[in-house]
Amino acid sequence: MENKQAKRNSIFHSSFDLFRTKGFFQTSISDIVTKAGVAKGTFYLYFKDKYDLRDKLIAYKAGSLFHAAELKLKETEIKDFSERLIFIADQIIDRLAKEPEFLKFISKNLSWGVFKTALLKGHDTAETDFYDTFLHMVEESPYEFKNPEIMLFMIIELVGSSCYSCILENEPLPMKEYKPYLYDVIRGIIQMQIVREKN
Known about the structure:
Layout: H1 2-21, H2 29-36, H3 40-46, H4 50-74, H5 81-98, H6 100-109, H7 112-121, H8 130-140, E1 143-145, H9 148-168, H10 175-193, E2 194-197
Antiparallel strand pairs: 1-2
Helix pairs in contact: 1-2, 4-5, 4-6, 4-7, 5-9, 5-10, 6-9, 9-10
């Protein structure tokens, strides 16, 4: 099992390096398996084609972002629902600021379906299931929300587009200066989704 996971991870790491340096369309499956040191048949054990690999790679990388943020949250005493989500967003933003190549890659290729897969399945290593964590946070909160999934979708879309503009282009402000505005809007989104306080 460990060897199987190691081969899969090697394909993920090698493909990510190649997609960043050569570009997705210029990278062949042969390039990937050569760099990963696996047989072409091994590639097809895990992935249907290069597009399937790309989607699973994004889910893998995104899942690792959420997992790391979730671990950091567990080290805190934050109880407020809004502040917990903002803490997670802040952790992810700081990580993406340190990895602009990853940010460029996911920004070009991300769809809600792929991201939801990452949230629901972690990155196939059973480290995390962020969507379950999120629903647990919703359940523990003192509020009933209209539609938790839509709320999460809006926050992720907002954070994703803000990261791209503020981190990669410093527009309209550098990310550090923009964060207070962003977090106020996230609080507003959460507030608008509250139906009532639970008894």
